[in-house]
Amino acid sequence: MEMDEQMMREALKEAHTAKQEGEVPIGAVIACKGRIIAKGHNMTERLCDPTAHAEMIALTAATEALGGKYLQDCTIYVTVEPCPMCAAALAWAQIGTIVYGADDPKRGYTQFTPSLLHPKTEVRKGVNAEECSRIVTEFFASKRKA
Amino acid sequence: MEMDEQMMREALKEAHTAKQEGEVPIGAVIACKGRIIAKGHNMTERLCDPTAHAEMIALTAATEALGGKYLQDCTIYVTVEPCPMCAAALAWAQIGTIVYGADDPKRGYTQFTPSLLHPKTEVRKGVNAEECSRIVTEFFASKRKA
Lengths: 146, 146
Hints:
Two copies of one chain form a homodimer.
Chain A: H1 2-20, E1 27-32, E2 35-41, H2 54-66, E3 74-80, H3 84-92, E4 97-102, E5 122-125, H4 129-145
Parallel strand pairs in A: 3-4, 4-5
Antiparallel strand pairs in A: 1-2, 1-3
């Protein structure tokens, strides 16, 4: 879907912002009826908070924007497969749809059973996957060299 | 351990505060070397944020208090078995020990495989379990009657 790629571009912009700030370059946006209502990127270093993942920041911003705890009509676009914490947080929010770019075979939520997601949440993946993956790989490669 | 029961009393006080505020009555404290450095109780309603669980609030407060992302030398005391989101958050923080009161056979983290916890985290459970469980059961019973 063209919309998925367009929104993933916005999530990638967030990932690039994270990179500039020395954070693991993962970004997310949350859209409701085609309009972005919240953005977030990894801020674990700056906030000294291991829970400050892109998805958590976007999720909290989205519920604040909508004034409600639930995001059934929303879609989160995130550059990398969510970790279990973020997946379970999105389940509590009953998010309508999750669209992610790159798989995370090491820490991704899909490795856990039973599913960590809300039963009604739809998932699409692989959107701009190569670019979403490359920015993270390059980040860690440059860290190892440093 | 006497310390566990004493600390769980403090977590229960947090749960009672949550109850007074109309929140699901779950509380948590985080201790480092026998001293409480952070407290939290469920605030999902007040903050309109489905991630505002007792453990998440205490965890963020603890990392802020210590000025670091990791809690290897800390113990979290929480009245109810953490959900997958909180368990995975505590894994990111590499928490030293988790002590919880009541089991949560419906939404607890122990139902998921592989383990959501950090491999070095120790777990003790069943501390003041009856009281930790009763406050939640009574809360939902009174909600259904209302």
